[in-house]
Amino acid sequence: MAAVLAGALVLAACGGDDDPESATTTTDRQTTTTIDQAKADEEAVRKVAEEWAEASVRLLKEPNPADPALERFLAGEMLDRFREDIARRDREGLISRSPERPRTSHRIDAVVVKNDEATLRECFVDDLVLTKRATGEVLNDEVATYETRTTARRSSNGWKLVKRDGTRMEGVTGCAEA
Fold first, then answer.
1. Among the listed residues 89, 50, 81, the one whose alpha carbon sits nearest the alpha carbon of residue 163
2. Is the separation of the CB atoms in 149 and 123 below 8 Å?
3. Based on the structure, what is the number of domains in the chain?
4. What is d(CA 65, CA 59) in angstroms, rounded to the nearest whole number?
5. Range of the domain at 63
6. Of 51, 59, 155, 165, which is most buried by a Cβ count within 10 Å?
7. Alpha carbon 19 to chain centroid, angstroms
8. CATH code for the domain in which residue 87 is found
9. 3 state DSSP class of 55
10. pLDDT digit string (tens) for 78-115?
11. Are strands 158-170 and 144-155 parallel, antiparallel or unpaired?
């Protein structure tokens, strides 16, 4: 894409047209292309984060460390940590389920894309109930809110979530009240 834009700029410069509007038009196209690409990147990052939020709930309910969704959405540290957690849950016979009155939510408050890296500010309410698969015994039914900062990186297979840090608060609070 950059080569095409560079070629267009060279052709416009060599065209022998001294009309200042032709140079402005080329610059406007380049600016529009840059803005369009930035918007497309932001939308792609948002989509990956939203789809991962749904897939992660499914994986917590049905742990499978070999699920292709893991590598579809994650890479690096985040992939390693989540796969490890899912494998542990599977070995220990632990599953999550939705409560009677679910309050689970996920919201993306901001996405900033810079080159091949993006930062997302997210808010989650986690009300999933952790239980033993064999007996149904409830091990954890606490509701928590998470304010997170997630890093995504562009790969040859699209955007991947690679790292997540955040703060956990008891109940539905903080960013979830906004």
1. 81
2. no
3. 1
4. 8
5. 2-177
6. 59
7. 45
8. 3.10.450.50
9. helix
10. 999 999 999 999 999 999 999 999 999 999 999 999 99
11. antiparallel
